[in-house]
Amino acid sequence: MGFLKWFLQNFGLFFGGVFLVYFYMMIRRLTILYDHLRYIPSHEDATPMQVGDDPALGFLAPFFERMKELAIAGSASGADAMIDAIWSEIECRINVHFNALNGYINTIILVGFAGTIFGAIGAFNEMFAGIALGRAATDVFISSWNHGLSTALYTSLGAAAIGGVMLTLLSSRFLMTRAKRMETMVGLRISEILSGETLKKHSPEEDKSWPAEEDSAPPAME
């Protein structure tokens, strides 16, 4: 409670509230990304060529099942449409959070810049008013600090710190690398489904057009 009071007092009621709201939204987006990417193999574990029913792709299981049914039915256009749906789901589940976090970072930096200007204007107004009234230098400094200077400094510092930390997290090996590896695993899983059904269709055991074995012995001569 003491930290919240100090935070709002130094950042200002408006800018402090904005910083807290954006900080909450960033943590929420990071938590969602972590839930989706925590099962992806790390950089040290090489991604196998056979993905199978990997738990990291569990949220795409209904799409894979439907694509398998379409491949069995021989609907090439339906399988292509389902592949597009799978990549759209990846965009909605993963990439949209990266884009949102980048937007939050840019916005919080702009908010910090606006807080700097707003606080500086208030501090200078209070400082000039104190000098004009002939007040002591210490009183003028304290008054300007309480009426904007602290907001100007802390919003700049807070925006730089939050923006730097978030950019580091987004570019980290855990988030960005695993997100790219998820796309690789999805591509491998699609290839497994399509190639598996193609091999089944062209196998000699199941292909009815396969020519039957004929007796190669020559006819008997009369």
- Count every helix, treating DSSP H or I runs of 4 or more residues as helices: 6
Terminus-to-terminus distance: 111 Å
Helix and strand element order: HHHHHH
Helix amount: over 70%
Give the uncertain stretches in residue-range form.
Answer: 202-219
Q: What percent strand?
A: under 5%
Give me the count of strands: 0
- Determine the mean pLDDT: 82
Largest sheet: none
Rounded Rg: 31 Å
**Helix/strand structural class:** mainly alpha
Instruction: State the shape.
Output: rod-shaped
SSE topology:
Blueprint: H1 2-11, H2 13-37, H3 61-73, H4 76-132, H5 137-170, H6 173-201
Helix pairs in contact: 1-2, 2-4, 2-5, 3-4, 3-6, 4-5, 4-6
Would you kindly provide a brief summary of this structure?
With 222 residues, the chain is mainly α.
Describe this structure in words.
The longest helix is centred in the middle third of the chain and has 57 residues, at 76-132. α2 runs antiparallel to α4. The model is unreliable at 202-219 (pLDDT under 50). This protein has six helices and no strands. It is an all-alpha fold and 222 residues long. It is 76% helix and 0% strand.
Using brief descriptors, characterize the structure shown.
single chain, 222 residues, mainly alpha
